[in-house]
């Protein structure tokens, strides 16, 4: 069951409440895994504006959006636009925006949506400001923001167990997930013993509906590694609406905070070897533990994928 408001952490008055907030974060991180933060300092009007920018982007013609894909043409895990998952029968299109670099410059929507680039960069900078508080770390880099759009399914026949987003864990340290009130669907499968096998056979899925004024947070694989499995990277998915539920479009923005690829990670208990994030990712991709990793492998060799990861633009250093 959803744990009422015990899993909402207030980040306000951060400087004077730092220890208290750290304790609460450790508690939710170890016990509940997915949680919400409020008092994060991003105005609702700014969040709404970022959602509006994405609404404008996804409303552009499909042929145009497909030109905003990176050079590996529309595969979905690297920067830019992807509807690949829609083609695969998964009802979602996305645009992965990063900070500016030569590759991003080729795939920002240009004169068809000139407000998009400055607006999204500004929004990511705002996320960048809060992510170090929520993670308790000040060495994280912004890597990317995955802007998701699930079209309306009114009148669409949905086969049973169809998903808008397949079950997966996130690769990075921490995800700040912006959802919109009135657009449910996100579910998590917590539990320290949850694995790719158990998530399929006996996983209990718990709704993580949007909460007004809150950002949904989840721990990524890299933080699980760094915490010797004390903090769990939780499986999550987005389900399609049930017969009597809202069937309109659903939007979300997942802002990923991560370390540099060359940063060496090892937990205090040294349960795992000291490895760079890149090496950890390579290992995971060689022995995929979830469906997204599996899909990466269907389209890239691990070396290929990591080469592109290396080229992801990083945000400003946070002092
Ligand atoms: O759309 C959602 O609520 C979840 C998105 C997500 O899990 C992701 O982009 O990694
Ligand atoms: Fe995710």
From TrEMBL:
Alphabetized, the UniProt keywords read: Iron, Metal-binding, Oxidoreductase
Residues annotated as domain Fe2OG dioxygenase: 138-259
Full protein name: Fe2OG dioxygenase domain-containing protein
State the organism of origin. Apatococcus lobatus
Question: Which protein family is named in the record?
Answer: Belongs to the iron/ascorbate-dependent oxidoreductase family.
Per the record's keyword annotation, is Metal-binding included, yes or no? yes
A single GO molecular-function term is: metal ion binding
């Amino acid at each position: 069951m959803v744990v009422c408001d015990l899993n909402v952490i207030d980040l306000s008055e951060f400087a004077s409440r730092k220890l208290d907030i750290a304790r609460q974060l450790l508690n939710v991180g170890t016990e509940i895994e997915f949680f919400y933060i409020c008092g994060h300092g991003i105005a609702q009007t700014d969040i709404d504006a970022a959602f509006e920018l994405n609404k404008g982007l996804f409303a552009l013609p499909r042929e145009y959006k497909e030109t905003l894909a990176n050079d590996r043409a529309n595969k979905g895990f690297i920067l830019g636009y992807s509807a690949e998952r829609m083609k695969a029968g998964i009802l979602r299109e996305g645009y992965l925006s990063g900070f500016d670099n030569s590759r991003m410059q080729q795939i920002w929507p240009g004169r068809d949506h000139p407000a998009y680039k400055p607006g999204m960069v500004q929004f990511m900078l705002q996320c960048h400001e809060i992510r170090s508080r929520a993670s308790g770390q000040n060495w994280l880099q912004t890597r990317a923001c995955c802007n998701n759009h699930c079209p309306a399914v009114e009148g669409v026949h949905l086969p049973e167990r169809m998903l808008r987003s397949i079950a997966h864990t996130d690769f990075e340290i921490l995800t700040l997930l912006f959802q919109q009130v009135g657009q449910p669907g996100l579910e998590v499968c917590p539990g320290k013993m949850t694995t790719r096998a158990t998530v399929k056979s006996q996983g209990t899925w718990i709704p993580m509906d949007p909460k007004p004024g809150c950002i949904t947070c989840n721990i990524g694989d890299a933080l699980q590694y760094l915490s010797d499995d004390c903090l769990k990277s939780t499986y999550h998915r987005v389900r399609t609406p049930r017969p009597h539920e809202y069937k309109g479009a659903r939007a979300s923005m997942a802002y990923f905070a991560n370390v540099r690829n060359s940063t060496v990670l090892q937990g205090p208990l040294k349960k795992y070897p000291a490895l760079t994030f890149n090496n950890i990712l390579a290992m995971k991709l060689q022995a995929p533990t979830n469906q997204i990793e599996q899909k990466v492998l269907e389209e890239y060799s691990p070396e290929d994928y990591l080469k592109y990861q290396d080229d992801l633009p990083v945000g400003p250093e946070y002092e």
